[in-house]
Amino acid sequence: MAVNFHSITTRLVLWFTVLVFTPLLVTNLISFDIFRQYLHLEVNESLAVIVEHKAQRLEDYTRERLRDVTGLARAPAVVDALQQFSVAYSRGGIDSEQYKLVDQKYRPFLTAMMESASYSELFLIDIDGSSVFSVRRGEDFGSNFKQGVFRETELAKVYELAMTLSETELSDFSYYPVANEPAAFIASPVFRDGVVIGVVALQINNQSIYAVINDYRGLGKTGDVVVWQSKKDRLVYMAPLRFDPDAAFRRRAKLNGDASKVLQQAAEGVNGQGVGLDYRGEQTIAAWRYLPSLRWGLIVKKDEAEAFSSVTTLTQIMLQIALGSGVALIIIIIWQSLKITKPIHQLINVVQQFADGDLRQRVGLIHKDEVGKLAQAFNKMALNLYETQERLLSNSKILEKEVFERKEADVKLSRLKNYLDDIIDSMPSALIGVDSEGRVTHWNRRAREQTGVAKEQALTHALRDVFPLLRDQYDSVLDAIQSGSILTLDRIERFDNNRRQFNDITIYPLREEVGVGAVLRVDDVSAQVELQELIVQSEKMVSIGGLAAGMAHEINNPLSAISQSIQNIFICLEVEREKNIEMANELGVNLAAVNTYFEKRRVRRFLESIDEATVRAAKIVNDMLAFSRRSESRRAPTNLTKLIDKTLELAATDYNLKKKYDFRKIKIVRQYNLETIEVPCTLTEIQQVLLNLFSNAAQSMYLQDSEKNRSVPTITLRTRQEGQYAVLEVEDNGPGMDEQTRKRVFEPFFTTKEEGVGTGLGLSVSYFIVTSNHKGMINVSSTLGVGTKFSIYLPLEKVK
Amino acid sequence: MNKPQKRVLVVDDEIGILESIEFFLLESGFYVCSATSAEQALLLLDKQVFDVAVVDVRLPGMSGNELIIKSVKINAQMKFIICTGSTEYKIPLHLLNIGISREELFYKPITHMEKLVETINRLMSQVN
Question: Closest residue of A to B89, CA-based?
């Protein structure tokens, strides 16, 4: 669900939340910080107290021990004991009778002395460094600390120091092999009559010191006490640690390591407090001191986590309270916000529905607040609006009904008009209505198509202007209207784009009232006229064909006699022929002389002329009948376009054609629309037809060209499909021909050319090739001065 | 002439044509008889044997086609050449069936009668 930050509810909730939680958070944070600081101070203080206390105790302990030993060294019993032990030792060693006597005498006293202050060992060492007495009689007993194996020990060192300085000295803690543990010794010089005779040395009891150090009272669970001493380049822990009981003398740290910064500080004699990581890597709060008597550093520390655990716990509790109260607060805030905005939303809903058109909407529950007042005002306004609208509605309903009825009537009327218009438009004839003045009142679709004049341009105009075809008969049209008699005008000829068109026109005066107007019906009968002409043509050609065929036989027989007789005559004139020689000899005639005579008198030439004439006559008859002879060659699917182009090439190279009119000078325009369709036909025959048409076109244009030298001679070739026919057109822009010529062009022997140029058979042969052999059609249209067009129709379906 | 003469019958109702063919064939060394009608030709065929007949189609009375059919019945070995002045003429099916082909059809006028002689010789050579 998307939250709308502009809604009152959201804004209320957000602001209340911010206002409640900000002080809560700020208070929490500040108190937390104060508490933390306070705690820090307190921990620091307590640590400081503890470290002070521990330092004091350790210092006190060592000082006491030093005092003890000093006192012991001055005790006359000890002076005597040392004196006697030294003598006995130097005389007979520790195993002599004299030593045993001395030992028996002093041992109880010395042992008691040692145990009284819980020392671990007591030595008496003579002036030469020999250990002349030992309570525990360890390995070091009887050895010499100046020269023996123990000369490097802390004991040897402190002996030397005490002897040299004549003062009581405390050694460092160090591992002591005889005790097999870290040990520190206190040595004090023993004087007899003002002269040093030796030293009394005591080994400090480690446990006593550890007891002070490892006292963790007041340090909680993580508090720890660390003591150490710097030795050469490292720091050595001198006592067990709380979390590492074996640390004493075993655990070491680098003197310059980061972790030991504090240790080092302390070891250098600086007292202080601070925060840092301890040996376990924990964050700790620490206080440190230097213990001068022991030459130790002392740290008392506590984990920060524990130190501040109360703060952490407090914070958690506070957070939980804040969270709990926060959730409760938010619920209350949302509840209250919704309570405030709910009536507003209800009001909005009602207003919205009202605005959407439901004027019956009212606010149901009226609250007593400002929103309630608004709702009351709205209800009042809504009632007013509703009543006003009701009044308007009842008025408009009456109006609406009237409008609807009128509309319905209009629709019916216009539907009827459209229907009538449609009927009139659908008529195949041009129907034109005119009034008594001859002005156009109606103009249907066919009228527009036939005249090319749009309805809008025709209406109200004079018929004379928009329909020029009737210009000549205009008066008789007006007469017909006035008299009320039907007028029929047949086969009115006109030219449309150089095409002859025929129209039948009938004028029907309107019957209702004489003189009101008339309807003109104009039918385009061009197609009928053309068809009629074709039928007449066809019948004529068939009869001519039959006539010619009959004639041919009759002509051929006499021609035969002539031709064959001439051939025989030539045989009879042959000089070498046996029979001729025989006959000549019989008659006493010189055959050569006869021949010479025929030659001289040109008889032979005349005979040859007769022969040639018969051959030519035979050819004419043959040509004439070529069309009536059924072609036996097969019709095969042929690409008409390719055929035309091939024939054009042929025409261009045809010698006979070239001789007279150079075909290549003619411009050829190709408008092919039959590229892919193949037409069943006999290639050679159609080629013959085309050659004939090209030749005729070239001749006619050539004639005109020389006469007027007009436009560029052009032959336009078109192919297209028209129903089940492939149409091929050959059009020239030659002189054209008159109507009389046009009607006769296909007749055999009809020619317009000079005598001897053509036989007048070309077009008739073409005619029969197309009509008889291909079951097609050929027709010609021509306009004088414009050109001639031959159209050939070849059926696409193979006709048997 | 050592070889036996080839015997040709010419039938045509036009005397001019008949005589000119007869003369040309005689000159070419054939034995030639002529008839002006089919009926006359049949009479001749009864008495004599001919190797080849040159027949006009359109004859008074019986037509050339009929004459050929009848002649074959008399002499099955006989060959025929058809001569016609009608350019519409087509060899009818029953004549095609007895072996007459386009090669043996001549349209009038026969402008080169040597071809007629050549055709007769060819037909004769087929027989022998």
Answer: A629
Give the strand pairing for A131-134 and A121-126: antiparallel
Question: What Å distances lie between residue B8 and A549, A736, B33, B123, CA to CA?
Answer: 30, 58, 6, 12
CA A716 – CA A670 distance, rounded (Å): 6
Mutate to test the interface with A, among B108, B113, B115, B117 (most CBs of A within 10 A): B108
The alpha carbons of chain B give a radius of gyration, in whole angstroms, of 13
What is the β-pairing status of strands B7-11 and B31-35?
A: parallel
Which residue, chain included where needed, has tokens 């005597």? A80
Closest of A653, A651, A725 to residue A692, by C-alpha: A651
Q: What's the pLDDT score for residue B69?
A: 93
Residues A266/A291, Cβ–Cβ less than 8 Å: no
Q: The dihedral of CA B16, B22, B26, B28: what is its sign?
A: positive
Structure tokens at A13: 């909730």
> How do strand B79-84 and strand B105-107 relate by DSSP bridges?
parallel
Per DSSP bridges, beta strands B79-84 and B52-56 are parallel
CA distance A746 to A541: 8
Angstrom distance (rounded) from CA A495 to CA A783: 10
Contact B16 A556 (CB under 8 A): no
- pLDDT category, A785, cuts 50, 70, 90? confident
- Convert the pLDDT of each residue in A570-622 to its tens digit: 999 888 888 899 999 999 989 899 999 999 999 999 999 999 988 888 887 87
Cis peptide before B109 (omega within 30 of 0): yes
Residue closest to A766 by CA, chosen among A698, A700, A682: A682
Which of B24, B85, B113 has the CB atom closest to A556's CB atom? B85
ipTM score above 0.95:
no
Contact A780, A743 (CB under 8 A): no
Burial class (CB in 10 A: 0-12, 13-18, 19+), A561: buried
Distance of residue A769 Cα from the nearest chain B Cα, in angstroms = 15
What is the C-alpha separation between A34 and A266, in angstroms, rounded? 30
What are the DSSP calls for A266-291, one per residue? HHTT--EEEEEE-TTS-EEEEEEEEE
Which of helix, strand or coil describes residue A479?
Answer: helix
d(CA A604, CA A600): 9
> A126: closest CA among A65, A203, A187?
A187
3-state secondary structure (DSSP) of residue B63: coil
Distance (Å, rounded) from C-alpha A432 to C-alpha A673? 37
Nearest residue to B54 via CA among B109, B1, B114, B117: B117
